[in-house]
Amino acid sequence: MAEKKIVDGRGSFCPGPLMELIVALKESQVGDELEVLSTDKGSANDIPEWVKKVGHEYIATTESEGVWHITIRKAK
Amino acid sequence: MRILIVGGGMGGTILANNLARRLTSELKSGKARITMLSASDKHMYQPGLLYLAVGRMTPDELYRDQASLLEPGIKFHVDPVEEFMLDNNSVKTKSGKTHEYDVMVIATGSRMFPEGVPGMVENAETFYTEETALKMFKRLQSFEGGKVVITVGVPHKCPMAPLEITFMLHDYFKDRGMADKVQLHYTYPIGRVHSLENVAKWAAPEMDKLGIKYDTFFNIKEVDGANKILRSEEGVELKYDLLITIPSHKGMEIVEKNGLGQNGWIPTHRTKLNMEGRENVFICGDTTNIPISKAGSTAHFEADVLGENIAAMVKIGTAVREYDGKVFCFVEAGKDRATYAMFDYQNPPDPKAPTKAVHWFKMAYNKLYWISARGLL
Fold first, then answer.
1. B331 in contact with A at a CB cutoff of 8 Å?
2. How far apart are CA A41 and CA A67, in angstroms?
3. Do A13 and B234 touch (CB under 8 A)?
4. B217 CB-near residues (< 8 Å, 6+ apart)
């Protein structure tokens, strides 16, 4: 059954939220949703760009109190 | 209080020594006891492997006897843990002994995992063990020219290693008079040449200046050794003559085997450093799942916090400090220049232009490390 995972990249300058997502995707199943939390506004651009490039599904980005929530689905 | 430290690497060693100094009288009176369990009687200075790979250090410079680094009063056993029984506050070791604790710190580190990429083990050189670093150096010595591709897996130990090995390889081939025969080609998993934005802003122009090519958004999928082609998850193919990899890493098998954390990374509170759901189990260094660099300095700064907190727990019954995410990394920018990056959860790094002075400080630290491991620096 598909799961929703939180990838908490808040305060992560290195390796950073996108790297944390790449690691989390390796540990996930096709169909799983992953929500990345990031305090770096650059993630709102970097993560959707990479997700589309690799062929996963980008779902949505929201921002609340300085934290960006970027949701994607593992597609392959 | 019975304090058990599992792991004799940088984090475990600094912590044990830090605690032994803070608890001198408690150790004498029997109010506290510190026990360390490790898989080896040797302690390796892991950052030295980078230099081993380019012929700038030899293996003997990387090791000390673990017992010689520890303060008197620390009970040290070469007897690795095989079973964690957290509900009973005890562990069972390879020799079959059971050790009980009131507080335990797990600092078992991480290991490279090139096996995760098809073709990587057979076709790439790396430098995360003594054996592979020496093999890589011998391969470099016999290399007569061509395209050298550097790949980076995630997560990996030492966030600066990809840049450092690239710049050091540039100088290595230049010194051999082969600069015009070798094309260095760097790849990186995200959309810039380093995860730290300010480091990337410094490193990309350096690479341009030195004629080092780079591809970003490059995550290794497989290595086709027969045709010497590297394929990425993003659909890019790169030809290579010599492949150097910073392999992805996992935590230690024993962590996974005991169900403490997926891929060997233990869920850890980012400021208190306790294992999620356990008040008397703390995690130090690479073993945490905290989203920060897997680096010696991270283990060092975490050990400082844990030393102060566990000593305070013995003396006043409560922890007194929180870990702020501090990391400090030297960045070798070749054979004779270096810079550094220092950051925490709140503040990004602001690296300066590389200088010879910082490089020589790093060279000095390669020796001073043994003082650091004793908890004195």
1. no
2. 8
3. no
4. A49, A50, A53, B189, B190, B191, B234
Residue B62: φ, ψ to 5°: -95, -10
What Å distances lie between residue B103 and A76, B30, B289, CA to CA? 43, 15, 20
A-chain residues near B191 (CB < 8 A) = 18, 46, 49-50
Chain B contacts in chain A segment 55-74 (CB below 8 A): none
Q: Which amino acid is at B263?
A: N
**pTM score of the predicted model:** 0.94
Q: What's the Cα-to-Cα distance from A44 to each of A48, B69, B344, B347, rounded to whole Å?
A: 7, 46, 21, 19
Residues whose CB falls within 8 Å of the CB of residue B45, separated by 6 or more in sequence, listed in order:
B61, B62, B63, B366, B369, B370
* Cβ separation B345–A22 shorter than 8 A: no
Q: Are B159 and A15 an interchain contact pair (Cβ–Cβ within 8 Å)?
A: yes
Contact between B167 and B120 under an 8 Å Cβ cutoff? The reply is no
> Which of residues 193 through 232 in chain B touch A, CB cutoff 8 A?
195-197, 217, 219
Which residues on adjacent β-strands are paired with residue B157? B294
**CB-CB under 8 Å, A8 with B292:** no
Give per-residue pLDDT as tens, B221-270.
Answer: 999 999 999 999 999 999 999 999 999 999 999 999 999 999 999 999 99
Question: Cα torsion for B166, B168, B170, B175, to the nearest 10°?
Answer: -170
Burial class (CB in 10 A: 0-12, 13-18, 19+), B135: middle
Query: Using CA atoms in the order B17, B18, B24, B28, what is the torsion angle rounded to 10 degrees?
Result: -50
The ipTM assigned to this model is 0.86
**DSSP collapsed to 3 states, B292-322:** CCECHHHHHHHHHHHHHHHHHHHHHCCCCCC
Using an 8 Å CB-CB cutoff, list chain A residues near B327. Answer: 14
